[in-house]
Amino acid sequence: MAVFELVAAPGVDLEAALGLAPRPAGVMRLERLADIDMALVVRLSDSLLWLMPHGGTRIAQRLTQWLGSLGLQSQGALDPQAVWPEAESRDQALALEALGRAASPLAVDLLLDQHRRWQEHRSQPRETMDEISRRSRFLNRLLVPPLVVVVGRPNVGKSTLANALLGREAAITSDVQGTTRDYVVTQLDLAGLVVRWCDTPGRRDTTDQIEREAIDIAGELIGAADCLIGAAAPGIGWPDLPRPADLHVQLKADLPGGNAAEGALRVSARQGSGLSEFVSAVREFLVPRDVLAHPGPWLFDERLAAS
Ligand SMILES: Nc1nc2c(ncn2[C@@H]2O[C@H](COP(=O)(O)OP(=O)(O)O)[C@@H](O)[C@H]2O)c(=O)[nH]1
Ligand SMILES: [Mg+2]
Questions:
Q1: 160 Cα nearest atom in ligand 1
Q2: pTM value?
Q3: pLDDT at position 117 over 70
Q4: What is the C-alpha to C-alpha distance for residues 284 and 192, in angstroms, rounded to an integer?
Q5: Does CATH place domain 4-76 in 2.40.10?
Q6: Mean per-residue pLDDT for 39-67?
Q7: What CATH topology corresponds to 86-307?
């Protein structure tokens, strides 16, 4: 799924420009964008808005056109060598540009090495462009933060987990089931990999309008997730999901009675146990270590393939 990251110039109200109602930071909503597509929309800060449209490449192109017609310029429209005249090559100029928008600290050293790697590849290819492309799909997650969605029944400990990873009280935790009604999205640094972390509210069967919308968002999110995590806890079973979870985590591991499913990680967010193993597992799923360590070039920008 495409992600549009919109950065506002000072004084620009992005939501107003897009014809959307203002929303609190971090709260995800499902919106219709100019009759083009439905999209998950979340504002991360005063100047940062993410659009995650449902549709594929064609829809993404139409959205890009629409955003252009609103005066919102795409970064890819600029000539990198004009912006980075000190770059030794076009590859290096592209790398410097990517460096400016890379979300993850892990991207820095890799990007700085790309000029050399592409030079090597262009003089003596060791891999096909398809192979490079396949690895790059993982590495591109260092530029645009991948979407991690945690799903579990109410009270399983999802928000407490998010808070423990974040190290501050961003999400709301409560003993009362269903009190966290909103989908809360935050950027989280998982040992060098920055992700969009989505804390889902507890799902309940109800005809209530807000709950209905929440359930629609859940469907979109589960489809869009780069990493879907199913959560259970002692006395609280696994959630029913429309597709298998990528990872399973047993929360509240400090409490007795958890029947750890095979391969499930065990975490106590309250005591902090199992957190670093959990972070490693999510990171490994999204950007495997062998991909990070591979010496070949990274197709971090489609324009590299053309030159
Ligand atoms: N013993 C224990 N309790 C926890 C742990 N994590 C969360 N809880 C408690 O479980 C309850 C529900 O947690 P919450 O994070 O709001 O669950 P959510 O509904 O899945 O978001 C709260 O009272 C938390 O304090 C844990 O690791 N150990
Ligand atoms: Mg919660």
A1: 15
A2: 0.87
A3: yes
A4: 12
A5: no
A6: 88
A7: Rossmann fold (3.40.50)
